[in-house]
Amino acid sequence: MQKKKVILLLISLVMLLTSCSSSGGSGSKDQSNAKPIINEVMGFLEEIDLGESLSLEIIATDADNDKLSYAFVIAKGEGDIVANGNKAKVTPSQVGELAVKIMVEDGKDNTIKTVTTNVNAPPFDIELNGTVKEAMVGDNIEIEVLSDTNNLSYEYYVVKGEGEITSNDNKAIITPKSIGDLEVKVVASNGSGEASKSFVMKVFGEVNVVGNIGFELPNMERLENPKTQYSAGKFNYPFPLVQIGVDNLREYNQYMLDNLETIRVGVIDSGVNYEHPYLSKVNVELSKKFRQDYYGDEDILDMNYHGTAMTGLIGADFNSDNNFVGVAPNVELVALKTSDTSYDTANALDFVVDNNIDIVNMSFIHVYFNEQLQNSVQNASVNGVIMNSAIGNQGVNDAGYPAKYDETFAIGGIDRFYNYADTNYCDKVDFVVAGSSYLSTHHDLREGELYTITGESSGATAIFTGITALIKGKYPNISQSEMKELLKRYSFDLGTKGYDEQFGWGMPHLYTLMNKVLDKEVKVFVAKKDNNNLEVLGNPKNYSLSVFTNLSNQINYEFNFVSDAPNHSVFAWIDVNEDGQINAGDYLGESSNGDLKIDVTKQDYNLM
User: Fold this and answer.
1) 483: nearest Cα among 494, 492, 493, 473
2) Which residues pair with 339 in a beta bridge?
3) Of the listed ranges 80-94, 452-466, 471-485, 495-509, the one predicted with least confidence
4) Residues 269, 302, 422, 586: which is the catalytic one?
5) Catalytic choice (106, 270, 306, 564)
6) Phi-psi region for residue 467, left (φ > 0), alpha (ψ -120 to 50) or beta?
7) For this structure, is 306 an active site residue?
8) Over the stretch 354-373, which tens digit does the pLDDT of each residue have?
9) Is 269 labeled as catalytic in the residue annotation?
10) All domains in the chain, ordered by first residue
């Protein structure tokens, strides 16, 4: 019992001592003390770059005015701290998150605050070594990325153009794959920041183009129906003159027409209205009548229409106000008025020989053979007279006289779209000309009409006579056989390739013939086109046209050039006036890559 009392006494003593210790002593907190307050951390930044420092200043207060002390500890990340009272300089030593624990004490209690900043890698720059401004397709361009910063990673991109990139760390090989501009971008990264550089190279490539060069048939689609193809106050060429290139001669080489020899042309037909205002070239005194009618034995006045119309097609006066023109301005026209008999035609041909007439037009046929006519044709041929005769309009496989004779040019007809015009056809046909529905001079001015509609092989023959008059005017001593070979070479081959019985040797084209275009060279070059400016790429290449046997021939070309332009055109140019400039009236063709059809250009171009 006594032992239990002692134990209880000891327990009570321990409890008393413990209570005394809790309520007092040097390690106790004063329940009446106010904790310090951290009002502001000055100089704090949410992010800084590695290598920079934070200059912190702690603004703290204590309600009891106790003396405060300060402590700074790095709680996360790595760095150095230099503290001086309430100030500290914090310098990170690695990239990433840096947490600084700040403790303020008043000797009795403390307050702790943690601030966190993000430490970025310092900014850096890169330079590219080995870049070029120009390269060829397939070249390997080696570049190197230079920087003062270590431990970088690299990415390479093609921004514009086509190319391949093979890279190894800070080195790469750039291989252009197409002509044009190639832009490459390099991006370097240090994990938290990037630096980039781009460069552009102009990539050239060797281009090979192949194709054929040939002449373009004149385009008739733009011409209206002959009854409405003339507009008041504006001159429009009838489509036969466009087809054979007389329009181009008048527009671009009028000087050539002005300097031709005057050629005397006889028109064996129904006479002529020599009072027509546009037929001033008719030599009334030399003209002769070989038939009888009520106008008297010597009068050549046309009562039929046919002769006046044929005469107008050959050589009506040019005047832009009257909206009409004949083919040949260099003619003296002689009307030989006949009946429909072979005898009158034979007599008229004898008159042609006796009166130094150079060319004779016979836009008619006789059905039957006549020996006198044959003899007169042969005599005219021996004396150098060029005879042009219509093949006939019956649409049969035959020819009338005098077209049947080898000494004459036998002429058939086509329409404005180069289709056979249902005139006669056979192995006597030499050439064809547009021969359907176009205007010519009217025979009867009492009706108030200056024009009439004519056509078929008659009109085609008259147009052809104008062609021969122009050729004869340029080459006065040319024979009919020589003229035939020249016309064959300067004709478009229509129908089946080569000679055929509908189109003969084809349709002559005067503009190429009078300019002897096939004796020139065609220049092939590549250029970038900007309106009327042509920037030539590479050296042009010349091809001879001497191999052409007619205007429908083609020659092959192959052209290699170096270009930086993905969009270019191939041009074929014939310098008609041989002045070294592309002028209206020259031949020019354009193709993106392939066959070239050349035609008369109506525009000047500047070669750059």
Assistant:
1) 473
2) none
3) 452-466
4) 269
5) 306
6) alpha
7) yes
8) 999 999 999 999 999 999 99
9) yes
10) 37-120 (2.60.40.1080), 127-206 (2.60.40.10), 243-508 (3.40.50.200), 518-607 (no CATH)
